[in-house]
Write a structure and sequence with these properties.
By secondary structure, the chain is mainly α. The protein has eleven helices and two strands, in the order ααααααβαβαααα. A two-stranded antiparallel sheet has the order 1-2. The chain is globular and about 65 Å long. The chain starts with 30 loop residues before the first helix and ends in a 23-residue tail after the last helix.
Length: 323
C-alpha cells in the first residue's frame, strides 16, 4: 500500500459538474431524508453498522469505481464481486436494499443504488461522531460485476508502497490514504489479520512485525488465543482500543504509541512517507474530522458513471432486465 515515487494515472476523478449537491431536489425531494431515516433506524439497534457501511463504500469505489457493482448477487452463470473472499464479510447491504425499496415506492427508477451507498455512508459517519458533509449525487449504477475485477483493494498484509500505488490508481494522494484509513477509528478486525504479530520468530525469539505495546499484545493474545479458527468463527477486536465506536483522531494517537492492531496501520506511523501525516492528524481532532469528510467526498467521485451511462436499478442486487 505505498511507493516512494509514483506517477498518478490519468483516470479516477470526475469533474465537479458531473455530480452535484441536491441532484434529486426536483425529481425526488425526499431522497436524502428517506435514506437517513433507514440508517438511523439500524444504527439505533446496532451502532457498529457505521463501520460496515464505510467498508461497503470503500470496497465498491475501489473496484470499478462508485457504481454499486458490489451489491450485485452472483448467479449460476456469473460470480459477482460479492463472491470475492475479501467481500464475503461485508455488512450493510440490507440497509441499502431497504432504502432502495422505500425510494422506489416514492420515486420509481430515480435514485441510483450508487448514490444510496454514498448517502447512507455519510449519514452513518455523522451518527458515529464524524463531521456532516454535503454529498454530490447523480451517480448511475454499473452494468458489470465480476469477481475477477476485485483486485487492488488495499489489505492488512500490504506494504505502505503497495497501498500508495493502489490509492494513486484511483487518483487519491498519500494524504488522502492516511486520512481515509482513519475509518479504522471504528470497526473491528478478525484475529487472522494480525495473528503473526503475536508470535515470536523461532530463530530470533523476537515478535514478528513492528514493535507493539506490551499491554496491547497481552490483551490481543487473551482475546485471540493460540488456535487457528475458521474465519467466520474467529474472534474480533477493535482497531481503536480507546474510542472504538467514535470517529475521531485517537486512532492516530494510538499508532504513535505502538498500539496499532494491524501491522499495516502501525507502519503508517513508521514509514517516512506517512509518519508526518499521522503526527499531524493525531494533534488536531477538528482538523482530522474536516479532512476525513473532504476525503470521503473525493473517494465518492472515483470513476463514477453519469448522464446516460449505466442505469438506475430497480433493485440494487440485480441488473435491470433488458427492455
Amino acid at each position: 500500500m505505498n511507493p516512494l515515487f509514483i506517477f498518478l494515472l490519468p483516470i479516477a476523478l470526475v469533474s465537479a459538474q458531473d455530480l452535484r449537491v441536491g441532484f434529486y431536489n426536483s425529481s425526488c425531494p425526499q431522497a436524502e431524508p428517506i435514506v437517513k431515516a433507514v440508517v438511523q433506524k439500524h444504527f439505533g439497534t446496532d451502532p457498529s453498522i457505521a463501520a460496515g457501511l464505510l467498508r461497503l463504500y470503500f470496497h465498491d469505489c475501489f473496484v470499478r469505481g462508485c457504481d454499486a457493482s458490489i451489491l450485485i448477487d452472483s448467479t449460476e452463470k456469473a460470480r459477482s464481486e460479492r463472491f470475492a473472499g475479501t467481500n464475503r464479510s461485508l455488512r450493510g447491504l440490507d440497509i441499502i436494499d431497504e432504502a432502495k425499496s422505500n425510494l422506489e415506492a416514492r420515486c420509481p427508477s430515480t435514485v441510483s443504488c450508487a448514490d444510496i451507498i454514498a448517502l447512507a455512508t455519510r449519514d452513518a459517519v455523522v451518527l458515529a461522531g464524524g463531521l456532516g458533509y454535503d454529498v454530490p449525487t447523480g451517480r448511475r449504477d454499473g452494468l458489470r460485476s465480476e469477481v475477477k475485477d476485485v483486485r487492488g483493494i488495499p489489505g492488512p498484509m500490504d506494504t505502505i508502497p503497495q497501498a500508495i500505488q493502489d490509492f494513486a490508481r484511483k487518483g487519491l494522494t498519500v494524504k488522502d490514504m492516511v486520512v481515509l484509513l482513519g475509518a479504522h477509528s471504528i470497526g473491528v478486525t478478525h484475529c487472522g489479520g494480525f495473528r503473526t504479530r503475536l508470535l515470536r520468530s523461532p530463530s530470533t525469539g523476537k515478535f514478528f512485525g513492528p514493535t507493539m505495546d506490551t499491554s496491547l499484545r497481552a490483551k490481543l493474545q487473551q482475546a485471540c488465543g493460540n488456535s487457528s479458527i475458521q474465519l467466520e468463527n474467529e474472534p474480533t477486536v477493535s482497531f481503536d482500543q480507546n474510542t472504538p465506536m467514535a470517529i475521531d483522531n485517537r486512532f492516530y494517537s494510538e499508532l504513535l504509541h505502538s498500539r496499532g492492531v494491524l501491522e499495516f496501520d502501525q507502519m503508517l506511523a513508521l514509514d517516512n512517507s506517512t509518519k508526518g501525516i499521522v503526527e499531524h492528524l493525531a494533534s488536531d481532532n477538528d482538523g482530522f474530522l474536516k479532512k476525513f469528510a473532504d476525503a470521503m467526498v473525493k473517494l465518492g467521485n472515483v470513476e463514477v458513471l453519469v448522464g446516460s451511462e449505466g442505469e438506475i436499478r430497480k433493485k440494487c442486487n440485480v441488473f435491470n432486465m433488458p427492455s
